[in-house]
Here is the input.
Amino acid sequence: MPTHPQHLMLPGPTPLPPEVLTALGSPMINHRSEAFCELYRAVEAGAKWLCRTEQDVIMLAGSGTTGMEAALCNLFSPGDRVLAITQGSFSERFAQMATTFGLSCDTLAYDWGQAAEPAELESRLNEGDYRAVLMVHNETSTGILNPLPELARICRRYGALSIVDAISSLSSTPLEIDGWELDVTLTASQKGYYAPAGLCLMVLSERAWQMTETATLPRFSLDLRLARDYAHKAQTPWTPPLPVFYALREGFKLLQAEGLEQIQARHLQNMQMLRGGLSKMGFELFVNDERVASRCVTPAIPPEGIPADEIRRVMLEKYHTVLGAGLRKLSGKMLRVGHLGYQDLNTILGVLGCLELSLAELTS
Ligand SMILES: Cc1ncc(COP(=O)(O)O)c(C=O)c1O
Here is the structure.
């Protein structure tokens, strides 16, 4: 590959602003020093601001999947009944993980590309005695946004905990952890926060913390109670990924300077611009209804006869632009344009222009 910098148009990892790239060069320090505690407190304050929560934000070394696993092994015991809402690759992974951990996991399964229907969740919870519902806010494999406030409200009505994978949605999409009384919300540093992968962030409700006391699944390095004890000392139980902490400190500063409402408005505008441009070029949007369309990734099926992966190849080779591929059963059928994080209308117009040139090349 040429040394030309790549334009990452993925729903994670996402491009890093110059301030963050500089911060990543900071020296390593003792993670049991006051200097680290200060760094920890700054990141924690930024995370609480972003999550709009008064509750502890727990930070675990790992990726988003680590947070999903931590949620399961800290809250449940073998045989516990849970319901997983599935509609794509990541939500199916959550269900598969629950089964792997020995939970009795039923699914409320939707076609890939379809949002969950609150009334259907209600009738399933009415029929069965579930301890929790596993759900993805933004299903990144299909670009679907679930109606989270309604789903969470129904969970509460039926006494089931809401366990929410907000890995790709937090920051780009309105999300009220305290306001919607979510029980477990988790995300990962490489998504909308101008940082590389390496840290997952989790917020637990009081009900969820209580369940960590009685759950019997084994846990050791992902023990959230231990992580909370250390968080109260502004530390982590194990050696933390220091570069990610440095990056997040800068990232949160930039995000705070912009403001949460403005960040969300920017993501909405980027999404609308991209959807309009793709449609005009003859792409079929995988999610038709803009109200349930993801604010951070737009999957699109190319015009008849142009293979999606050929477009991705030309975009990479000629225009140094990295687009996401269709996942699993959608492999080769679509491309997924990420517009999460450090992206603005310029980057969206750039990707649309390069796509037009790529289509012209492939059809000439
Ligand atoms: C909705 C969702 N869940 C889970 C994951 C997995 O996260 P990670 O790759 O950080 O483990 C992703 C990653 O793209 C995601 O978008």
In short: Residues 260-280 form the longest helix (21 residues). The chain has a mean pLDDT of 97. The CA atoms of residues 221 and 238 lie 8 Å apart. The domain at 7-14+260-363 is CATH 3.90.1150.10 (Aspartate Aminotransferase, domain 1).
